[in-house]
Amino acid sequence: MLPMVGARVHDGDDTIDKLDSFIDLDDKLQLNPSDQQLLQEWRQAMRSLDKGVVNVEANVGMAVAIPNSVLSTNFFTKGQVSVVSAIMVDQRDLAAADPTQDELFSSAQSAGGAVLDIGLTFAREIQWGEHAFLLGFSPKFQQIYALNYVESLSDMEDSSFEWDEDYTEKSGFNMDFGLSYDLTDKTNIGFTARNLISHELSTNELYGQSATFLVEPEYVLGINYDRNWVRLAADFDLNSKQYLKEFDYKTQYARFGAELDAWGWAQFRTGYMHSLTDHADDLISVGLGFRPWGVLGLDIAAQAGSDNNYGVSAQLAFTY
């Protein structure tokens, strides 16, 4: 599989639109600081920004699998970036008689990190009576980066966003584990555990602010029903995913999906993701797959939620 790419953005508080409105009002107030009506609108726009959070994720990866009857092997590499941005309003700005005289104390902080995985998966089928267990184990090398960026709301009008070069990094070992069991010839259940070893990495400090990027275990339980031309699946995050220790932004989903297969050549997929935290609403997803002659495979998918939560993904696969 080369490449596998995906991206997601979540702006549940409409922070980006609110920030654009605030910047527009700030420009007008700079030209007419004595307009009291404009000043009140400016203060209200700033209040609406307080504690607004935006989450952005992106990933890219590849895998080469060599299936065999002894010990199937899979080489993989994956890079994932996660960023959480939050706006913190300072009461001194709201109390100022003329906030255009000095730089604002209120600021926007963007903190996050990137994780690069390079590893091997070893998998084997173990027969148990009439059914089979599938076991997989993935030792991997992990390179972790963390970065923190802070900017006053006064400086955000130029729309520039340049990461400070003073990022932090660490390397270490981690592992994934997975198993599935055939309940019947058409139904199986599975369990995966990713990043069994927890890692933390503190970001650089900027204007007295920093954050701690987290790489923690993720556990998922799933079930799959396959009737050749139709497949039904469900999986459940058994724990929530927190990106940064200082930011109370977490995600956790229960997912349900269906696939219709047209003679192995094309697939239509749809799904529903129910959020188990208060930080996001539910999402729907649609996807298409193409498998001409069973050699070339292309999969594309999109997700959308009512609270400005959008995602896209794609992968290209070659079978020999």
Notes on the protein architecture:
This is Conjugal transfer protein TraF. It holds the Pfam family TraF_2. It comes from Vibrio amylolyticus. Helix content is 11%, strand content 57%. It is mostly beta strands and 320 residues long. The chain has a single domain (4-318), classed as Porin, CATH 2.40.160. Helix 1 (15-31) runs antiparallel to helix 2 (36-49). The longest helix has 17 residues, at 15-31. It is elongated, with a radius of gyration of 24 Å. The mean pLDDT is 93.
Which features would summarize this protein structure in a list?
57% strand; 3 helices; 18 strands; Porin; 320 residues; mainly beta
User: Spatial order of the strands in the main sheet?
Assistant: 1-2-3-4-5-6-7-10-11-14-15-16-17-18
- Give the overall form: elongated
Order of helices and strands: EHHEEHEEEEEEEEEEEEEEE
Helix content: 10-25%
Q: Mind telling me the CATH class?
A: Mainly Beta
**How many domains comprise the coordinates?**
1
Please outline the major beta sheet.
14 strands, antiparallel, barrel
What's the CATH topology label?
Porin
Sequence stretches where pLDDT stays below 50 over 5 or more residues? none
Query: How many H/I helices?
Result: 3
Task: Tell me the Rg in angstroms.
Answer: 24 Å
As a percent range, the share of strand residues is: over 45%
The assigned structural class equals mainly beta
**Number of beta-strand segments:** 18
CATH level-two architecture: Beta Barrel
Distance between the termini: 12 Å
The residue-averaged pLDDT reads 93
InterPro entries: Put_conjugal_transfer
Pfam families: TraF_2
Protein name: Conjugal transfer protein TraF
